[in-house]
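Q: Protein A?
A:
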Amino acid sequence: MKLIFLVLGLILTLGLASAHHRNRHSHGNYDNNNYNNYHNGGEIEVQEVAVESQIVVEDYSYHPYQCGPYNRCKLGEVCQRIGDHCQCLPIPSYKDICLSVKQIGVWQDGQRGGKTYSQWDITIENHSNKNIREIFIGTDYTFRLRDNSLNSLWNMVMLPKGILALPSVQNSINAHASYTFGFIIDGPQSPNLHILSVLFQ
């Protein structure tokens, strides 16, 4: 009788030990899976952030205006649109429109702490046989309006990202005609201006 109880006790002990081992093994796999899932998820998240950052960088390296439904010009090119036809043309060889730059004067303003300012006239010369309906001119850090005020800019309006455009009262520039706008900026140096996009009538 004692032998029977001894055998039953041994079987019960072995069963509990086996179950405990399986339980530990199962929890060990669960933890490893969670660890792997966490790290795999972390890698995916990092990749998504990297791609998103790359998209932002690429966006800044491209021309700000779409040229046609599928094309975007590169920096250093003019997006020329004539009706439904659009093409990207390199600025150095673009002769249909020119920007003529003239310095009107340079002075130091005692009422503004002796800061140096300069006044400029920019003439948009249309050498083409078509009327200009829209033109967008890009600027950069060299274009700092006096007092950071639009009162220091006339005959043009400023769009986001410092882009200059014709005002609503000036709906076109005729073929072989010109249009002049002006501004007052910080410093004596000529600002960098470049034609981004032109729409001909």
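Q: Protein B?
A:
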Amino acid sequence: MSAPSTTSYYPFDAGAPAVFSRDKTGNYIFIAFLWLLIYDHAITLDKEVEWIWTLRWRLPKIIFLINRYIVTSLLILDHSVVLNFTIAELLLLIRVSSLYGHHKLFVWILGTLYVLALGAAVGLQAWYGRQWQVVLYYKDLPGCWLYTPGATNPIQWHMVVFLSVEGALMLLTAYKVLSYFHKDMNPAITVLARDSLVYFIIIFVCLVTIVAKDIRGTGVATLIQIASLLSWLDA
């Protein structure tokens, strides 16, 4: 394909119908998950009011409200992945820390890991963003489109940082689960450890897939869509 322009729309060609169809399918999928999230919030709001809103303002209540409203809002509005990482990973670090009894040395180690990973991710995402340029694609196609003329995608090294953090947290959680395998474990801690391990495995696999896709490359110049909430609502 010829390089898209930053000042004029790309001319309609034989590939346009497939692009519009794929974009609309993606929008419908996102809207479906958005309504599923809203539905979940609606049917559990009474329990949230009863069990959470009546609590004093301490760490458990703050963590729940951040995860329930701020993190989900950032995902819906499609903010920077590093910003999402900043909040989501902090909550996950707190969960892992609780499995180890919030031991002071362990908390310091996790905190240092978090700060170093965040700094590296910010720098690497800034570098990654410089590999792309904002362009106009087909007229009436929603979203913001980025273009790179290279034969392969720039590797998202900030995702490698996330991958390393998730890998470390997954191993720490797995160790705690295995260490209590033959012991009587607090039911709440058991659920926390089990759910955390399942989550870490899923996220780890997703991150590996993203990085592997970038390393393999596409062999052609690449366009990607940075969608907005309004573009999804235009579906």
